[in-house]
Specification:
The chain has 124 residues and is mainly α. It is built from four helices and no strands.
């Protein structure tokens, strides 16, 4: 079961960032497509499944944030990603600020990905 959940976690992470990139682009362009119902619902469904897989993996491997430095780094970066993402999609006042926060969000996602691969909070 572990390999299936791990692959699902990776897949949901890739779908999540792809949807974020699409929504961020639409936000910067001020596209009405951002108001479509599926665009508002799908990210929550994908991110919930992503988080559920993460919790399963964490429990299965007995590796927990604040016990494992790399998981702590991923969790804190996840909070940063969510916060930056809200400014990239909703809270940014101008297209330029939404673009800036979108780039910061993507950089944060890349950091999370690198930490996941290396199991180190300093993946470089």
């Amino acid at each position: 079961m572990y390999p299936i959940i791990k692959n699902a976690h990776i897949t949901f992470a890739l779908i999540s960032i792809a949807l974020f990139l699409l929504r961020a682009t639409w936000s910067v362009m001020e596209s009405p497509k951002l108001q479509q119902k599926w665009v508002k619902i799908a990210p929550h469904v994908i991110d919930t499944l992503l988080l559920a897989c993460a919790i399963y993996l964490m429990i299965t491997l007995s590796q927990y944030p604040f016990a494992e430095n790399w998981l702590t780094a991923k969790l804190l970066a996840l909070f940063a990603y969510i916060g930056l993402g809200t400014f990239a999609i909703k809270r940014g006042k101008t297209a330029g600020s939404r673009m800036f926060f979108s780039l910061l969000s993507v950089a944060t996602f890349c950091y999370i990905f690198a930490v996941a691969i290396t199991h180190s909070p300093w993946p470089v």
